[in-house]
Design a protein that fits this description.
The complex is a heterodimer.
Chain A (H helix, E strand, L loop, with lengths): L7 H14 L1 H4 L1 E12 L5 E6 L4 E6 L1 H4 L11 E11 L4 E11 L2 H18 L16 E6 L4 H13 L4 E6 L7 H12 L8 E6 L13 H9 L4 E5 L7 H5 L2 E3 L2 H8 L3 H34 L2 H4 L1 H38 L2 H4 L1 H44 L1 H6 L4 E4 L2 E2 L11 E5 L4 E5 L7
Parallel strand pairs in A: 3-5, 6-7, 6-8, 8-9, 9-10
Antiparallel strand pairs in A: 1-2, 1-4, 2-3, 4-5, 11-12, 11-13, 13-14
Chain B lengths: L4 H17 L4 H24 L6 E3 L5 E3 L5
Antiparallel strand pairs in B: 1-2
Helix pairs in contact in B: 1-2
């Protein structure tokens, strides 16, 4: 028969298992005020967390408690992280605290988030506003406290890495309510152009969020944004992020890190110079080698090695030309010879007298012809002459005179009209036989 | 005015890149090579012979005075 009633331990163990298996209760974040604080001799912390209306028991075991960075006490507002479970022995549930920190930062956290949001919307964090950090600065400005680890780390790091770089410290308050305006004042001073700075480191060493708060102030963020000099922020430790980090041109995790980002090491630069020298020498050797190859190629060419071959080629060409020339001349000579032989074999040359004979025959024929022609001409002319002579006999004035007519001339002019004469004119009168000179007595009118 | 270390280094880099681009005539390549080697020598001397610079601090009166970090 089954026992109807449970043992208390059975119930509490069952309830514990429900707590332990619930994923929501395995990680819980609570904000509350400490009360009934007890620091047990074995190192475990027991207290109650409460707000205005409710409370919960809390336990923080030694292994977690030793990580605390503050001393908890009654009345303190805290933020805790832990799991909810049941303590079966007492039938109570409680929070087993893993981490705890003082609250009151909540307000600052909200301010931080609000400012971050605002400046982000304005574009102050955009990458295009980030100025490049010069690789090799001549002079580095540092804005931090003149005492403390930060400035020491920065200066010693710069001296170790790149001793030819100058540093100028612009001392500033980095903690407290006057810190932000002081940092702003020194950023403006350093950025005034009076100091010819290549890069500016703004920061401080580690501390609480309140200690670092100046670097979360809007005026500091805006001064960093407006500076013309590239700025490296270096606030606190690696885990600390401030508004200054978001707006700076580069964020360094620590002041030492900032110095490392600001300057190269002499060795780096020496190595770089060496590598350039090596590259230059390789380049020039390569270039000279190529040039030499080209020259070698040219000088080792067949022609330059065997200059006579140039002549050989020409000689051969000359031979060719001569052959062509000879062929032409021989052909022509053969041609002429052929013509000559033809001529030699001709009838004329073989019987040169035949030329004369034929000419003689022509001559004889011509002579005969000529004679015949001349004879004809003479006969013809003899006949013509006789005809002409007869005609001439008929018209001869002397013949007319013989019939009894006379010719009267005056000064060798034949007178045919008596009107051409006047008395006393001397005229010659020619008769068939003899002449007289007469003087005109009178011109008679008919 | 004396060439700054950074400028000389930039010039050196530019010449090395130009030469390695292969677009340089032989004569001018040799001139540039000579120039680059001078720059490298200049940088190297400036880097290694320079004495350590003194740290300064800006005082309230806006004067720069030597500053020693105390251990």
């Amino acid at each position: 028969m089954q026992e109807k009633y449970l043992k208390i331990s059975e119930l509490n163990t069952y309830i514990k298992s429900i707590f332990d298996e619930n994923p929501y209760l395995n990680k819980v974040y609570l904000r509350g005020e400490i009360s009934n604080f007890k620091n047990h001799s074995r190192g475990h912390l027991y207290f109650t967390l409460k707000d205005e209306t409710s409370r919960i028991n809390a336990v923080m075991f030694y292994s977690s408690a030793i990580t605390l960075k503050f001393a908890p006490e009654d009345g303190m507002n805290v933020l805790v992280e832990g799991r909810i479970s049941c303590y079966p022995a007492q039938g109570t549930y409680q929070i087993y605290v893993d981490k705890m920190e003082p609250d009151g930062l909540g307000e600052l956290y909200v301010k931080f988030e609000e400012l971050k949001e605002k400046l982000s919307k304005e574009g102050l964090f955009l990458p295009e506003h980030k100025k490049p950090i010069p690789r090799i600065p001549k002079r580095v400005g540092v804005i931090t406290a003149p005492t403390g680890a930060a400035i020491k780390d920065i200066i010693s790091t710069i001296k170790r890495r790149f001793p030819i770089c100058e540093t100028i410290l612009f001392p500033a308050l980095v903690q407290g309510k006057d810190a932000a305006p002081d940092i702003v004042r020194q950023i403006k001073e350093a950025d005034s152009g009076l100091y010819d700075l290549d890069v500016l480191i703004v920061g401080r060493g580690g501390g609480s969020i309140e200690d670092l708060w100046a670097f979360n102030e809007e005026i500091v963020a805006r001064a960093i944004y407006e500076a013309k000099t590239p700025i490296i922020s270096a606030v606190g430790h690696e885990i600390d992020f401030t508004i200054a980090d978001f707006v700076a041109d580069m964020r360094a995790p620590t002041p030492t890190g900032a110095a490392e980002m600001a300057v190269p090491t002499t060795t780096e630069i020496n190595n770089m110079l060496n590598s350039y020298e090596i590259r230059l020498n390789e380049f020039i050797n390569n270039l000279l080698h190529k040039a030499k190859l080209r020259i070698d190629n040219i000088t080792s060419s067949y022609i330059l090695k065997n200059p006579l071959s140039l002549y050989e080629l020409k000689e051969q060409k000359l031979d060719n030309f001569m052959d062509i020339l000879n062929n032409n001349i021989l052909k022509r000579l053969a041609n002429y010879k052929l013509i000559l032989n033809n001529l030699k074999g001709s009838y004329i040359l073989k019987n040169p007298l035949s030329l004369f004979e034929s000419e003689k025959e022509k001559l004889i024929y011509s002579e005969k012809n000529l004679y015949h022609n001349i004879h004809n001409i003479i006969l013809k002319n003899e006949h013509s002459y006789e005809m002409l002579l007869n005609t001439l006999k008929l018209v001869n004035p002397l013949n007319i005179l013989a019939q009894g007519y006379s010719l009267v001339t005056k000064e060798n002019t034949l007178i045919k009209d008596s009107n051409n004469l006047k008395p006393k004119d001397i005229v010659n009168i020619k008769f068939a036989k003899g002449k007289v000179k007469a003087e005109i007595k009178e011109v008679l009118n008919e | 005015m004396e060439k700054s270390f950074e400028d000389a280094l930039k010039e050196l880099e530019a010449i090395v890149k130009e030469l390695e681009s292969g677009n340089v005539e032989l004569d001018s390549a040799i001139d540039k090579y000579t120039e680059a080697m001078k720059l490298a020598k200049y940088c190297s001397e400036k880097l290694n012979s320079a004495t350590e610079k003194v740290n300064k601090i800006l005082t309230e009166n806006k004067e720069l005075v030597d500053f020693e970090i105390s251990d």
